[in-house]
Design goal:
The complex is a heterodimer.
Chain A lengths: L3 E2 L6 E2 L10 H16 L1 E5 L5 E2 L2 H4 L3 E5 L1 E2 L3 E4 L7 E6 L2 E2 L5 E4 L6 E4 L5 E6 L5 E4 L7 E4 L6 H4 L2 E2 L9 E3 L11 H7 L11 E3 L10 H4 L9 E2 L11 E2 L9 E3 L4 E2 L6 E2 L35 E5 L2
Parallel strand pairs in A: 3-5, 4-7, 5-8, 6-9, 7-10
Antiparallel strand pairs in A: 1-2, 8-12, 10-11, 11-15, 12-13, 14-23, 16-23
Chain B lengths: L3 E2 L6 E2 L10 H16 L1 E5 L5 E2 L2 H4 L3 E5 L1 E2 L3 E5 L6 E6 L2 E2 L5 E5 L7 E2 L5 E6 L4 E4 L7 E4 L6 H4 L6 E3 L11 H7 L24 H4 L33 E3 L4 E2 L6 E2 L15 E2 L13 E3 L2 E5 L2
Classes of the chains: A alpha/beta, B alpha/beta.
Chain lengths: ~300, ~300
């Protein structure tokens, strides 16, 4: 009879009566696989050449990539050895270069290894490589980078293209509900929030801290937006109680004054200087749709976990 | 003699002298278990029926749930086969329906499988617990409009909504230590700032918010009441007045005409002031969008 092999890791299971006198062969082989799967660490130096993992590489619990990338590379995992991995990408070189993890299964999902991190990935048995413990779908990711990392845009589907990606930039664009069904369900829309140049507030829920009437933003509605870095155009009321002037004037009668024959005293009433408004107005100040900019820093992008 | 079995994943250890001629049975069984524990993937379609996992299922490293939920379901793990799992909940259907992971232990804690994500969980033999979830105390800015059903379906929900309510230090001891309080931050309708630390960027004196104190809050979407200064250079009036000279006019014997010079109207300030306007306790509404809930990893 012949041995059978377990479907995932290929442990050899000799038939009864087989391997007499040579039992060490299957036993030791199995022990070696067990050792690698539960504790093995393989370091692979990369440059710009793709790598098809050998049996001594893909059996390991942990695969570490290092050295200097001079181009993007693709790492091909087997479809017949099904397990999870710890992946660490320690490669240096341009951040434009990526380390893609894939299988040869048609239409399977491929992902890329984030630089500098130890991550968990799983081969789901259908040839798909997926991130594990990677944050929740719908979770915002405030990121210190200035553009979407290349390892994100390097993810996708074999024979299809670079979708789905694990994060999308919250720039108000639309996305495909077919590619991101859970995100579409969660957002209730296929339009991403537009976080560009904005800070984020939490839904007001049972409070009325942000209202359309005052700020123009309905705080009870997700993805409502508004505000402006300029101070809002506004008026001030003016109190103008009118006023009087001190003066040395008299009424200019312009007439003839009769006097006695010798000499006379001109006795006129004091002139009246009428009170008047001044015409002063307080001009509008500022511009823009709403209020002011608080103490803030521009920290980078806001991404959203998508699946 | 009889075999004994390891306590966690039930590998068979035959007794000395046993299994003569049939050693393949325990050995091959053990390798099968190891293969499943380290590499096995089991996919279970769900609808609205609870599932008690069979050995070929609970021995697997990964369990994937799929199909369309028409009701919430409970997945029961054994207490006698203790290990961690990779769980992927790919079920569709209403987000109100949950996939609860539990053991047969009375009083054991249950958790629910997050939707659409690969996540690690542990069966402790009594409780089902998350592994590699966010750190306790981390804010979770979430684009949903309500707490996910998979969160609230857990015996101890792993996240709480930061709505200013109180929580139990007994249930969430680590969070109580981190916050130094059993009152959650109140994020509703507010944006979050980092503690000012060694800066003075946010102060009680100016904005009413002590930026050096955690969970201090304030601000207002209304513009703060404030004054404007006015430049009032003075002004003149047109008039019909002559100078009040109060002088004696020596005239001719007959008639004389009074011809006083034009009067001088002095300049004056007006006493005008600009009124306060606006209301609210502090500053203004910044450029903002409403992003959903802010929750905090609690357990």
């Amino acid at each position: 009879m012949v041995s059978t092999f377990t479907p995932n890791l290929g442990f050899e299971e000799p038939a009864r009566g087989d391997a007499v006198g040579v039992w060490d062969t299957p036993w030791n082989s199995n022990s070696t696989i067990l050792d690698l799967v539960t504790g093995g660490i393989m370091t692979i130096q990369l440059n710009n050449s793709n790598v098809v993992l050998s049996v001594n590489q893909y059996r390991n619990k942990t695969i570490i990539f290092n050295s200097t990338l001079t181009g993007s590379v693709s790492i091909t995992f087997p479809s017949t050895f099904i397990k999870s991995y710890e992946i660490q990408n320690l490669c240096t070189g341009s951040s434009a270069f990526t380390v893609t993890l894939t299988t040869t299964t048609p239409n399977s999902l491929f992902i890329a290894a984030p630089p500098g991190e130890m991550i968990n990935i799983t081969n789901d048995g259908l040839g798909n490589l997926q991130y594990r413990n990677f944050g929740h779908i719908g979770e915002y990711w405030d990121y210190g980078g200035s553009s979407v990392p290349n390892w994100i845009t390097a993810c996708g589907t074999n024979n299809v293209g670079f979708t789905p990606q694990p994060y999308l930039n919250c720039d108000g664009t639309t996305f495909s509900s077919a590619s991101y069904p859970q995100l579409a369900n969660l957002l209730g829309t296929t339009t991403l929030p537009d976080s560009r140049g904005r800070i984020r507030a939490t839904l007001t829920q049972t409070t009325s801290r942000i209202t359309t009437a005052i700020s123009g933003i309905n705080g009870a509605t997700r993805f409502a937006a508004g505000g402006n870095e300029l101070m809002q155009q506004h008026n001030h009321g003016v109190t103008d109680p009118s006023h009087t002037h001190t003066h040395n004037a008299q009424v200019q009668n312009g007439g003839i004054v009769l006097v006695n024959l010798a000499e006379g005293m001109i006795v006129n009433a004091a002139a009246t200087i009428n009170a008047a408004v001044t015409g002063i107005s307080i001009n509008n100040n500022g511009a823009g749709a709403s209020q002011n900019m608080p103490p803030a820093y521009v920290g980078g992008l806001t991404l959203i976990r998508t699946g | 003699m009889v075999s004994v079995f390891t306590p966690n994943i039930q590998l068979e250890n035959p007794a000395f002298g046993d299994q003569v001629g049939t050693w393949d049975v325990p050995v091959d069984s053990n390798w099968t278990i190891l293969d499943r524990v380290l590499g096995g993937i089991n996919t279970i379609p769900l609808n609205n029926t609870n599932v008690i996992l069979a050995s070929s299922q609970y021995q697997c490293k990964t369990i994937i749930f799929n199909s369309t939920l028409t009701g919430s379901v409970t997945i029961t793990f054994p207490t006698s086969f203790v290990k961690g799992y990779e769980i992927l909940n790919q079920c569709t259907g209403s987000s109100a329906f949950t996939v609860t992971l539990t053991t047969t232990a009375a009083g054991g804690q249950v958790i629910c499988a997050p939707v659409g994500e690969f996540h690690d969980v542990n069966n402790t033999g009594t409780n089902m617990v998350f592994k590699s979830l966010h750190r306790v105390g981390r804010y979770w800015d979430y684009a949903g409009s309500s707490i996910p059903a998979w969160v609230s379906g857990c015996t101890v929900p792993p996240y709480l909504n930061c709505d200013g309510s109180t929580f139990s230090a007994t249930t969430y001891p680590a969070l109580a230590v981190i916050l130094d309080s059993t009152t959650l931050p109140d994020t509703r309708g507010r944006s979050r700032f980092t503690l000012t630390q060694t800066t003075s960027r946010i102060t009680t004196a100016i904005s009413g918010i002590n930026g050096a104190t955690r969970f201090a809050a304030g601000g207002n979407e209304s513009m703060q009441q404030h004054n404007h200064t006015i430049t009032d250079p003075g002004h003149t009036h047109v008039h019909n007045a002559a100078a009040n000279q109060s002088a004696v006019v020596r005239s001719a014997l007959a008639v004389s005409a009074a011809s006083p010079g034009a009067g001088t109207i002095n300049t004056a300030v007006t006493g005008i002031s600009a009124n306060n306007t606006g209301g609210g306790g502090s500053q203004n509404m910044p450029p903002t969008y409403i992003g959903g809930l802010t929750m905090i990893r609690a357990a």
